[in-house]
Amino acid sequence: MQRVFSGIQPTGNIHIGNYLGAIRNWVDLQDKYESLFCIVDYHAITVEYEPEMLHQRVLELAATLIAAGLDPDKTTLFVQSSVPEHAELTWLFTCITSVGALERMTQFKEKAERQKGGVFAGLMNYPVLMASDILIYKAELVPVGDDQIQHLELTREIARRFNSMFREVFPEPQPLLTKAARIMALNDPTSKMSKSLEGSYIALDDDDNAIRKKIRRAMTDPGPQGGEMGPGVKNLFALLEAFAELELVQKFRDDYANQSLRYADLKQALAEAAVTHLAPIRERIFELLAKPDQLKEILHAGAKHARQLAQETMAEARDAMGFKMPVA
Ligand code: TRP
Q: Which of 38, 76, 103, 314 is the most buried (most CB within 10 A)?
């Protein structure tokens, strides 16, 4: 079985964009591949963050992933900082990665601009840590969104450089591009749904009425004009497709085509479908969070398994680079 690795940051407010764009896809992958899914808390500290919130955010994300369908019996679910070899390999890779390549990363340039207090080296080295996450498990496939393709290409470059400078240790991972939905902001359907855009998202722990209200307020357009849908309406259809039965989607598509669609009806149906789909997930999140010790137990078991794999690769990498002293 091919091995899949992916990571997600514990930055809070996990929303339906994350769920439909990434998490639900992971749930499907766990049946088809050997999978490792990682809560990347070391990545979360590359921008300003609240240390006293970090642990809670990790637990919330773990609860959300499990509630959404990740099954710790099928997949290895763990927290990055529980496997310190990720950081160790990052150091080795840092020494074979060019500063120029890191400075050219689109996401680095965007994030650096937003760091008013100055840019720390961790932000620039973010993609090196990501490369370590993937390569330390010799993962072959990496499900990521478009915005991470550049980082994955750098990962491949690092693998190639390591293999040619020292010894063949790392396979070059491939992106796993799936037809996952790209969900847009409800209040501005030209940008991606984002936790940093207030009013743009439905969080996975929003209650039924919050879900309804946000959908009711979603931006549309003056009315079906025939032809191409506006971005807001298109987004509502994407959500309807994710949450409702095919027949219902088809009915609304037909209404749209013959210009008899009332957006209020579309929103009403979407809201009910979303509530039906999301309510059990939300309830499960709260159940899991009520037992943090159990949750930590699950993550710990995942980390133990992951760490075993990581240590094997780490030993190879150290040896290939000339470190022959045993780890104490
Ligand atoms: N950078 C990724 C993101 O923001 C998260 C991530 C960290 C990741 N390490 C990874 C994704 C390894 C895939 C593989 O979405």
A: 38
